[in-house]
Every structure is written in structure tokens, then in C-alpha cells.
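Standup notes, structure subgroup. Blocker cleared on the fe (ii) ion input:
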Amino acid sequence: MRYALISDIHANQPALEAVLASIGRQADVAAIYHLGDLVGYAPWPNETVKLIQELAIPGVAGNYDSTVGTDYKHCGCRYEDPLQEELSHASYSWTRRHISPETKAFLAGLPFRIDLLPNGGHAGGPRVVLVHASPTLNTLYWTEDRDDDFCLKMAQLAGAKRGDTIAFGHTHIPWHREVGGIHFVNTGSVGRPKDGDWRAGYVVLEVGSGGVQVEYVRVEYAITRTVSAILRSDLPDAFAEFLRLGGRMPSDADVSPT
Ligand SMILES: [Fe+2]
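Run returned:
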């Protein structure tokens, strides 16, 4: 069974469209799931949610979705410095002011977790657990440098066993590791990568008799559309530059074409 997993779209409609087109060219993808953070930082929250709804793509609640959906005081994002904190608050308040009641209701109704059983629920076999950030909280940053014990603790909390997979996003930096026969897959981000590569990212996860295969795909998209829409909007201009640099300093980034 092959699944396409898309996470952290963050209202970047051109990136989502490019990823969906790329998935359409993949062979034998049985289903697409999103791992949350549909909105925030870019100017198309309603359009992004509408597209997800129209295509009936199931998925889980990211921290941005659940905080916007429940009128929480902030987005549950981590800030490294006062400037980041200010920008984060600007994005959150912009998003809350611009989402429709329908979008808000949809975000509030997203489930925390989805389990996939590729062999069917009537038979034993591997399980794929989909969450936004971790099995306990959708705000926890599960980065690649977490040690094996942390991964195994998360697996235990999720009820995952040898042969299972836990897939998540949230950090916007893709990684895959196997610990104790359990696969931990961070899918990276469709609409706001932070690994120095501006292109939209997603994962094709294959679960079958040969075990678990993880394919990372990066897709060029019409980033100039997103950049100019951000600059035209009253979102902070810094969000446009962030996308062009893939969330890194210029010296450490594969910068997008202008
Ligand atoms: Fe995110």
C-alpha cells in the first residue's frame, strides 16, 4: 500500500497545488493524508482548506489548526528570539482575522490522530500512526537529534510495535529513522520548509510485505506567486524571504529563483 503524506502546508496554495500535481503523477498511491498545519504564515488559509475539503483529503489537527479552531491565545509555536515571537503573533492574529467561520469550524473538527492498517482491521499487520508532532501533543518538536529512548517512549505512548510506523511533521525538516523495528518518519513541509531547500516537500510511504519504504519528494512550485501575494498582503514581508531561503540563512540555503 502506498500513501502520500503531506504536512505543514501553511496556507501556501501554489505549493499545495504543485504537490497534488506531483502526487497525481505517482504510480499506485492509494490515498493522500495531511498531517496538519493547513493555515498560518501565507495568505490563502480559506482556499487551502477548501481544496483539502473538495478533494476529501483526511488528516489530523496541527497546532495551528487546533489553536485557531479553539481561539487559543497563541499558535503554540516555538520562538528562538523576540523578533520571531513578534512575527509569529502577527501571523496568528492575521490568520484569525481572515479565516471564514466555515474554515474555523473545519479546523476545530480535525482529529488528533489517524491510524492506518494497510492489511485491513480484520487482520494483523503493520500499523501507521499519523499525528502532527507527537502522539501526546501537537506542539512538541520531535527533531532528528532526539535519542532512541525518546523515540521508543513515543512509540510506547502511541501503542506502536515492531513493523509499525509513526509519521508526523511540525518541525518542517524531513528525517527518517528506524529504532527497534519501528519507523519514525518526519515528512517535512509542503508550504514552509526549514531545511534550506525552498521546494515543497512530501513523502510517499509504502507499507507491504517488503517492510516500510520511505520516499522523500521535493517539488518546484510557483513561489513567486506566494512571495508577491505575501508582499501585497499585510502579513510581515519577512515571511516571503523565509520561503525563498527555505527557512535558513542565505549562506546555507538553496535560494529560490526570483
Ligand atoms: Fe507547522
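Discussed briefly. DSSP finds eight helices and nine strands in the chain.
Next: hand off to the docking folks.
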